[in-house]
Sequence to fold (249 residues):
Amino acid sequence: MSGIVKPLDSRLMLHGYATGVFPMADSRDAVDLFWVEPRERAILPIVGFHLSRSLAKRLRSGRFHVTCDRDFPAVLAGCADRPETWINGQIEQAMLDLHAQGFAHSVEVWREGALVGGIYGVKLGRAFFGESMFSRETDASKVSLAWLVARLKAGGFTLLDCQFMTDHLASLGAVNVTRSDYVALLSAALGSGAASAVGAAGPGAEARGAGRRPFAGFAALDRLLEDAGATGDDSASGKFITQLLGQTS
Fold:
């Protein structure tokens, strides 16, 4: 863990993720930031997501309406709205910039028009760096994570980084890997396209290079849902997600 000297911006953030580190602050009001590189890294195998019977039932119920990138700032704010948070003003602004450039994404969970949960993170190559999630209603964060995993699976992603292990993540199939194993997984997920992405970071950078860089398809799930006739039907889309994620246990 080391202090950040340069002001945090989107390009610096992407370079950090590409080398296996990420920034944190001690509190919401903290001025100083730190690059963090855990000795053990929690990852969630995209093909090994533990879809319990209860979560599958919740997904199929249609209780929640799930969207992607509809309100990234609100999800970011929801994740920071807690007594202790590592998301300070610099991180928040850098994330908003990354979202504007097409590198940061959110999954929102709604209940009767109110935002009740969500997750956000950063996409680079075939890796997705899950930053934080929040829940204001039972199972809302689990639903957001299930939809994220389904989106990554549909899009051909190979790495979902969860940073630190929690009981919640472990129950969903997350595992710890050593630093060296994580670097190998990261390198494979980024390939040769990541360096170009970092170097080209700027407004519209991801969209400009989509046709020539081997990025995974973050929007692939939307096309699958449309083809299956599940768009606009929360219960039907939930059933599709359970099928995509595989058998329940």
Remarks:
- The chain has one domain: 2-245.
- The mean pLDDT is 88.
